[in-house]
Please model this.
Amino acid sequence: MLFTISVMAASRSTRLLGATAANFWRILLGAGLLALWAHTVGGGFGGGAVGLFFLSGCVGFGVGDLALFQTLPRLGPRLSLLLNNCVAAPCAALIEWGWLGTKLSALEVGCGLVILLGVGLALAPEDHQPIPPRRRIIGTGLGVIAGFGQGFGAVLSRKAFAIAAGAGQWIDGGTAAYQRILGGLVVAAVPFAWLELRRGLADPRPGSGPGRGGGRAGAWGWVGLNALAGPALGVGCYQWALRTTPSGLVLPVVATTPLTIMPLTYALDGDRPSARAVLGGLVAVAGVVGLALVR
Model:
């Protein structure tokens, strides 16, 4: 639910600020919120795996989310999430199996596939929403990169939690999310700084350039909602799940978050879900129930 709210807010802020700026500001604000948690009631830089969490953030928050924010304006929130989540889950399961030796049972894999099947059925684009071929190709490639980034980043977090546990350290989800988001902030800051420099050289007048002035003022509410629901609360819950559960099981459940986007897009954009989308949602939820039962 938190990730769904985050993506809807991201779609709005991206239109007002541009993808690169919207991604940077929500990570920066999210880092501030998580720092407040980690350095008061959390573990700060403790836990013994801060370097690996930082790397996980570079891959997931940085590369993965940067690609996702470039996918959103090209494919829209529904198809962007479909690609991101359905690529991330099998990538994470395969990488964790090959690197950490985590094996899933046949029933767990089957339920995960049912979830992804339902999500794919629900979020596949409708005929009345044509996307130009060039935009579709670029958006699809970026969506695959985003999914791989999320999947590999999740496995890196799993390894970091294992290192902390091996050292006798306990680390909570909020602290892990804080250590992780710092890596994403570094990666996101580079293209943002480059674009700002180019804009400043092209037009040095104060307040000039895309995403500045009134558009930027109107975007701050969406950026704040995105930062709170996504990098702060959403990723905190996400990291807490990865602390106890293989990524190949966590990510298929996370992949159902786009299903809750349907009523929101209907209310905000008039994008009414079809009977096929509703059926796909029911199939995906059945897969989640099955996954819970076989566990």
User: Anything to note?
Assistant: DSSP finds ten helices and no strands in the chain. The mean pLDDT is 86. The chain has one domain: 2-103+130-243.
